[in-house]
Amino acid sequence: MQKGSIIGLMACASALTLSACGKEQPPAPPPPSVGVVTLKTESAPLVNELPGRVAAVETAEVRPQISGVIRRRLFQEGGYVRAGQLLYEIEDSPYRAALAQAQGSLANAQAAIRSTALQAQRYRELVGINAVSRQEFDNAEAAAQQARANVAAQRGAVQAAQVNQNFTRIRAPISGRIGRSLFTPGALVQSGQADALATIQRTDTVYVDITQSAAQLIDLRQAMKAGGVSDAGGARIQLLLPNGSTYPIEGRLQFAEVTVDPTSGAVTLRATFPNPDGLLLPGMYVRARLVEGQRANAILAPQQGISRDARGRATALVVGGENKAEMRQVEVDRAVGDKWIVTKGLKAGDRLIVEGLLNLRPGTLVKPGAPQQVTAGQNGAAGGAQ
Predict the structure, then answer these.
(1) pLDDT tens digit string along 282-328?
(2) CATH of domain 92-167
(3) 169: nearest Cα among 60, 65, 61
(4) What residue stretches are annotated with the Multidrug resistance protein MdtA-like barrel-sandwich hybrid domain (predicted)?
(5) Do the beta carbons of residue 98 and residue 161 sit within 8 Å?
(6) Domain boundaries, the chain
């Protein structure tokens, strides 16, 4: 074999060892770029969204105090009425007759009282000279007292008849907006009937009764006692209306019920809201955003950086030493806007990965940088992304 052939075979063998006989190995892929947020501690409001119902501050059912036939209805259904305004008139002829009869009985009793008083006076003089017996004098004295008592009784009957006649004119007990009338002119109504004639509700200010679980209330109070949460003190409340919009006026928390509902395990909180335009209607279902307190030194993590593993546990990926992705198991309390309050697993200074998480595994070398989609200016984010 010639010397040139041997040299060519040796060169080919060397090439097979280095590049698989002429084919070059592809270069290693660069580390994936990820967007990171540098976490820090800050004060965070504890906002809770709870269900609630609107209730009027005053509600009065208009009911008849006597029996009779409605003669007239004197209000516009759905309109505003003032306290003392005449609403219904009931046929009053039977009650006028009863009043006249009571007045006649009073006059008769008043006439009888004079004659019995004079007779008792004469018998008092005659008994002193033994012209009449002591028994006759006692009878005359008793008759005079009976006549005076009869006058008092008849005067009370007149007053009762007058009250009944006044009840034929039914007036509004409170000011407010009146609903539909359940009875029309010509209908017979009775004292003590089950159905009210109409209902008046004062809604210029309304109550919102909010329900909160007793467990949440206990957690909040324990956190306050431990010192990690401060009291919100007369917290303002926002309402979410049934159509999803926010009620423009904030309310104030008034008090919390002192007992827990045994059927639901919830506590009722009552708030007041101004309602100048009548937008809040009694019975309306709403959602209330209640600021219960402030958590000091809280870690707020963007929600994009928190995920769940196959077991449902909250996890996060952070940039660890040597710019390698590191898995953390975390615990979150509640959402504040687009962030989670993290109570365990993350600390100030951690670089949380919020972008580039797809197919990213722990231990992977990454290239951290500022996030492109996640706004993290309030977190001082993107710091330390070199």
Answers:
(1) 999 999 988 777 788 889 999 999 999 888 899 999 998 888 999 99
(2) 1.10.287.470
(3) 65
(4) 58-201
(5) yes
(6) 33-43+297-379, 47-57+206-295, 66-90+169-195, 92-167
